[in-house]
Structure formats: C-alpha cells, structure tokens
Amino acid sequence: MEEMRIQKYLSEMGVMSRRAAETAVISGRVIINGEKASIGQKVAPEIDEILADGILISQKNLKVNKKIYMMMYKPAGVVTTMSDEQGRFCVGDILKQADFPERVYPVGRLDMYSEGLLILTNDGETANKLMHPKHEVSKIYHATVKNEINREVIKKLEESIEINGRMTKGASVDIIERKNGRTKLKIEIFEGRNRQIRRMCENSDLIILKLKRVCVGRLNIGLLKPGEFKPLNHNEIKYLKNI
Fold first, then answer.
1. With 80 as the cut, is the pLDDT of residue 203 above it?
2. What interhelical angle do 124-131 and 18-26 show, nearest 10?
3. Which position has the higher pLDDT, 117 or 136?
4. Exposure pattern of 139-150 as b/e (b: 16+ CB <10 Å)?
5. What backbone torsions phi and psi does residue 99 show, to the nearest 5 degrees?
6. Is the pLDDT of residue 107 over 70?
7. Which domains are assigned to the chain?
8. Which of 52, 75, 107, 217 has its CB surrounded by the most CB atoms within 10 Å?
9. Taking the mean position of all CA atoms in its chain, how far away is CA 73?
10. DSSP helix/strand/coil, 240
C-alpha cells in the first residue's frame, strides 16, 4: 500500500470516517511511531506503527474486505463515539456488551442528549458520501417541545439561521400533536450542522423536552428500541451506495 494521508488511511481501513479521523487526530487519539499524528501527515502502512484510540491498525488485524452496514437506536445519554476519554458510556460500549465481532463506526453524530437513528459502517467511501452536504441527504427528527405552539412559531422554525458564520438551508416543520402543554414536531433538515435542531428551537425560544432522529434519507428507525441495532438489508445498502 502506497503512502497516504492518515485521515484517508483510517477511512479506507474501515476504522472511522475521514471527518471522524480528523477529529481523532486533532484530539491526539492517533499515534504514529510513538508520536501524536498531525492533520495531513502521510503514512507508509507497511512500515509505520499506527494506533487509533490505543488499537494497532493494520491489514492483519482488521477485516478490511468485509463491509458492514447497520443501524442503531442510540439512547439518550450515550456519546456517539466508539470510545470516550472521559469514561462516558458510548456507542462502542453498546456494541461491546452485545459482543459485536466487527469494527464499525458511526456515520455523523447525534449529541449526547438526543436519541434515535445512527448508521454504522466500516465503508469509508459510503460514509463520506452520506455525510457530505452536497448530497443533501435529508434527516427527519421528532422534537417534543414545551407549550402548545402555533403556526407562526412553525414558520420561524423553518427559516434559515446562522451557525458558525454560515446560514443553514431552510427546514420543513409540521405539527404532529399538541397536547397537555406540549407540542410534538416533525422537523426535516437537509444538512447535519452542529446541534442544528437545538439551535433552531433556541432561535424560536422553544425548550426541547425530547429529540429523536427517525430517518436518514430513506432509512427509517422502524421498530428498533433504544440500544438495539440490526444489519441493513440489501435494498437499504444499495440505496446508501447509490447516493
């Protein structure tokens, strides 16, 4: 295998997506020949010793030819990582408890206090396509907020907001139910900006009581319960690859 940037290598080996690899490198979780890696650093896999989260990465100890695609219902309170330096319970811990034999990683993130659908894979190319903003893969959330809100608030929620100096694309928002001083909303967005739904609600002075992602593109969480996971079927995998 020829030299390549560390982020690309980790992605192609099915360890994590390129974006996740960048985060791992920046946070010092990737070690090359005993020293912390840097963004863009090139590696020679046959020569260099590469560790990610303390695990030696090589073609011998990773089943790189077997592509895994699955979905998980991430419970609230669980961190969307395969390990956590602060010792918080994470997605990787759920898989360990179930003795899941393959190494996969989450595609994108749900914040710690949100729950719902996560896609997990070791296919770096497909993961990158799914996360890239240019593909505009929609994501649908069910958000329960305090108070029985009206259509004027819905209209404001659908407007673009600024996140990190850049405007978001407009959202689609519908009321599912208004009951007992609460409103359950269906919110569809076409990006995956940091805490986007929560920021939208904050911008409209809404307090979120529960936030659950139910769809990523055509993939639906279905009857999965918190902490459960299952492999994607043939049609679901084909959909991901054709994005």
1. yes
2. 90
3. 117
4. bbbbbbbeeebe
5. 55, 40
6. yes
7. 4-56 (3.10.290.10), 69-133+219-241 (3.30.70.580), 138-216 (3.30.70.1560)
8. 107
9. 12
10. helix
Q: CB within 8 A of 119, min separation 6: which ones?
A: 69, 70, 71, 106, 107, 108, 127, 130, 216, 219, 240
Task: Give the model's pLDDT for residue 109.
Answer: 86
Contact 89, 112 (CB under 8 A): no
Q: How far apart are CA 81 and CA 110, in angstroms?
A: 10
Q: CA 44, CA 145: separation in Å to the nearest integer? A: 51
Per the CB < 8 A criterion, the answer to whether 59 and 46 are in contact is: no
Phi, psi of 12 (to 5 degrees): -70, -25
**pLDDT of 1:** 60
- 4 bridge partner residues: 43
The two structure tokens encoding residue 192: 């995956």
Active site annotation includes 111: yes
d(CA 37, CA 24): 9
How far are the Cα atoms of 1, 70, 124, 140, 208 from residue 4, in angstroms, in the given order?
9, 28, 15, 36, 43
Predicted local confidence at residue 76, as pLDDT:
97
User: Is 174 exposed, middle or buried (CB count within 10 Å of its CB: 0-12, 13-18, 19+)?
Assistant: exposed
Strand-pair partners of 185: 143, 175
Return the amino acid letter for 131. M
Average pLDDT, rounded, for the chain: 89
Instruction: State the catalytic residue, choosing from 84, 111, 123, 174.
Output: 111
- Rounded to whole angstroms, the Cα distance separating 192 from 75 reads 19
> What integer is the mean pLDDT of 160-175?
92
